[in-house]
Amino acid sequence: MDAWRTARPEEIVLSRDVGRSPPPHLTENWIGAAFTEGAARTAAQEEALRISDELVDEVLRSEVIVIATPMYNYGMPSHLKAWIDQVIRINRTLTFDLARGEQPIEPVQSGKRLVLLTSSGEGCFGPGEANAERNHLDTHIAHALALAGVSETHRVRIEFQEFGDDRHKASVAAAYSTARELARRLAKATSAASTLSAGRFPHRELATQTKHCVDGSDLGQTQSVPHETPRP
Ligand SMILES: Cc1cc2nc3c(=O)[nH]c(=O)nc-3n(C[C@H](O)[C@H](O)[C@H](O)COP(=O)(O)O)c2cc1C
Fold first, then answer.
1. What is the pLDDT of residue 208?
2. What are residue 175's phi and psi, to 5 degrees?
3. What is the Å distance from ligand 1's center to 160 Cα?
């Protein structure tokens, strides 16, 4: 955040601590209200969507979304899942139209960047690594937020927290330096092309990977692993 604020001092930064102030879980009323046309909603339905409206507005205004989260049971904490359920909304962040064929869902916006800062007790959760298959954290968040207009995801992992060993120390050091560099890079990139557009956009994923998980040596090196995930 310091690197970002230095590069973009004029920027408005909105902060949400969903751990300390968890958004409510979805209810039957919420779903009924979300699938009712705005003009036809009752006052109770408007009320059911009030928090969601606020959170969706924040996301729609954002060019860059930074999520810092621990891994719980190989996925995200339920507080964060509750936030995602509140912000991914039919006719607000996405539209659904069967006339589109096999891909009826389309995000309303595109071009947002997501920075995912994750922490886990175990390690080697990167693509191609030993625990990749158990990683339901960053893949889940990145795919869900594509429906809110995220077109590019950057992942920075801190791993092996429960071991507290050299692998952990190396991953903390690498994550801090990667995050700082990323903040500088994104600050430049978003000021150069800061228009959020509507419609479809290729989804790019840029990950950092700890090299020791690939070849069992060389602690703490990070590398960017760009891989294209075409969005419909
Ligand atoms: C309830 C709970 C579940 C966890 N599940 C996992 C897990 O599935 N895999 C893992 O690698 N670490 C797991 N951990 C460890 C945390 O991800 C790890 O300690 C992380 O660094 C915590 O981040 P924090 O200090 O920011 O809360 C779990 C921790 C807790 C408290």
1. 52
2. -65, -40
3. 10
Q: Whose CA is nearest to atom 1 of ligand 1?
A: 72
Q: What's the pTM value of the predicted model, to 2 decimals?
A: 0.86
- The per-residue pLDDT for 35 is 97
**Which domain, by its residues, includes 36?**
2-229
Structure confidence by residue, pLDDT tens digits, 143-188:
999 999 999 999 999 999 999 999 999 999 999 999 999 999 998 8
**Could you tell me whether strands 203-210 and 222-229 are parallel, antiparallel, or unpaired per DSSP bridges?**
antiparallel
* Tally of structural domains, the chain: 1
Counting ligand 1 atoms within 8 A of each CB, the residue from 79, 80, 120 with the most, and so the one to mutate, is 120
Index of the ligand 1 atom closest to the CA of residue 122: 11
Which residues, given as ranges, of the chain have pLDDT below 70?
Answer: 191-212, 214-232
Give the model's pLDDT for residue 188. 87
Of residues 188, 189, 186, 160, the one with CA closest to residue 173: 160
If you measure from the C-alpha of residue 130 to the centroid of ligand 1, how many angstroms do you get, rounded to a whole number? 18
What pLDDT score does 89 carry? 98
* Contact 77 CB / ligand 1 (< 6 Å): no
3-class SS at 75?
Answer: strand
Distances in Å between the alpha carbon of 121 and those of 44, 70, 71, 206? Answer: 43, 9, 8, 22
Give 72 Cα–ligand 1 centroid separation in angstroms.
5
Percent helix, percent strand, percent coil in the chain, to nearest 5: 40, 25, 40
Give the CATH number for residue 141.
Answer: 3.40.50.360
CB distance 122 to ligand 1 below 6 Å: yes
